[in-house]
Amino acid sequence: MKLNNIRSFLLTGLLGLSTLGWGQTSTTPPAPAPASNPANPFLFPIKPGTQNFLSGSMGEIRPNHFHGGIDIKTDMKIGLPVYAAADGYISRVRISSYGYGNHIVVTHPNGLVTTYSHLNHFPPALAQHMLQLQYQKKDFDIDVYPTQNQFPVKKGDIIAYSGNTGGSGGPHLHFEVRDAENKLLNPLQYGFTEVVDQVPPTVYNFALTPQSIDARVQGEYSRKEFTPEKQGNLYTIKDTLKASGLLGLEIQAIDQYNGAANRNGVQAMELRVNGEAVYRHLIDNVPFEKSRQVSVHINFPVLKLTNKAFQRLYVADGNTLPIYEVDADRGRFRIEEGKLYEVVADLKDSYNNLTQLRFMVRGESSAYQELGRPEVKTPKLSYDVMESILKITAADTAQAKRNLDLYIGNYKYAVIPSYKNAAGSVYLYNMIGGIPDSAILDGTKVKFPFNRLIPPNTEFLYTNRFMDIAFSKNSLYDTLFLQTLHDSQDVIHVNNPLITLFEPAKITIRPREIPADKSKAAVYDLGWGKGRRYLGGTWNGDAITFQVKDLGRYKVLTDTVAPTIKLVKKNSSEISFRISDNLSGIASWHCEVNGQWLLLKWEHKNATLTSERLDKTVPLSGGVVLRVKDSVGNEAVYTTKI
């Protein structure tokens, strides 16, 4: 089967001109234009015309989203000039301590927009405009949409200065290009010569995972990882793998640039089986609202458990990203008994540096076979779920293979063993046919915790004595075999954190222990261990309703302790504080000096509030009152005088 070529996103035409270079300051010389690629419509936004280095690339895998642009290093400094990439106007400015931090969006005449994030500060005119709005609204967080005539820019104007604000882990500029539909485009497609990349991607590991109940990898219904050897730009393994049935390939790989040790994302992958292309992806043109679907582009449970990002070279159920070209099996490939298959994956970065993974697979029978014998002291039944397949392993002392009794309501089904390995006899059952209650083998019994089968692409409400769970049409990527538990510690369990959602689900829980003061009680996500992340919630009688984007463990906790406030510095020019909270987290603050509202800038990374005066000629003087509230309304008050 022949797949269409992946589209290349090329920008043609000249951008229009604008006037009023308001962002340029007299103390900074104009930026030199890059000489080697005059066809590029965009100017590199940091130190244009000189070699730059990246710490992040387009499509890089993050825990809950695709990285939507490039991260440009700023020599571990803040305050480098940030230049407008093309003519246009500033269409959005946002100030926040989280996410993008100080953030600017420039709209260009052709409909494309460029974004600049984690900025330290703005040029005087824009900075004063934003400061006045903060004082008008009496709020630090502000999101502004200037009109087309307010802040026009020319290509090369200084529009900001680089920083480390928001969710940044160090000084850099996050730079994006988006189209009129808010799709994320790869900035490196425009041929910036400031970035030098002659380094092909690196493959760490690959995995084969069963995609049908008759599939086997090395004789087992298990996901198997392999570490290939590097031979130039080719990665391979010496041994021919044995498999059968429908399989999916996953690859853990990174890319790097000249002069930088950072581990970046791989832009494109293609899979061929016996020379036939079955799958391609290009991480470009990604709809911003679907960026969270990175969790089905990769093997999300493996990432959560091992911190290894394996990209799937097949399109998983629920994945609607428009970045793929696939065959009828959506990139999965079938291995037939007695046949030999050459599996080849090409990995390319944004500069077309190529790495190839190549290995051989020989088709085996999926009929029962003994791969080993368990050493059993006590008979035991254990189970696991892969996609919709229930995998039951029976460790017992029997030499001959025996059927497993599977119970679904009042019905009993005999399940034959699929194979035997060192762990025991393995039985496979597709739960789409019905959710089992229990299984018995020679008197040894296991009960299953599954409550209901929740289908994707539909609204669904599950309810029991202690909880209601409402899934929206777009909450689930794939069929969910719901597992719930209300334990002795009054903790609500809904499956586990390995299951993420595309759109939030709404959960209502009815705790056994009703808080004495519900206004101070809220729901917290307990994660895997001892974490406590505030989720909030709304009380209605003795029930509280909240939203989740990941399943897991939840508990109602009461927070009656107000935040703490410590004075760091005070004088006529500036006052600063360090604040913290023990549970629900800082929600708001309000400061007055001599009865007048004072802006305090919040930096969550070091938990500091720092003043910024509207009129720098007027010194701070008089009584100071700072009020800080946490997320459930506990308030701390600090007073002093300047």
Automatic annotation (TrEMBL):
Residues 1-23 form the signal peptide. Transmembrane segments: none annotated. Its EC number is 3.4.24.-. CDD domains: M23_peptidase. The keyword Hydrolase applies. It comes from the Bacteria. Keywords: Hydrolase, Signal. The keyword Transmembrane does not apply. Pfam families: Peptidase_M23. Residues 66-122, 152-182 form the M23ase beta-sheet core domain. GO terms for molecular function: hydrolase activity. PANTHER family: M23 FAMILY METALLOPEPTIDASE, PEPTIDASE-RELATED. This is M23 family metallopeptidase. It comes from Rufibacter roseus. The lineage of its organism: Bacteria, Pseudomonadati, Bacteroidota, Cytophagia, Cytophagales.
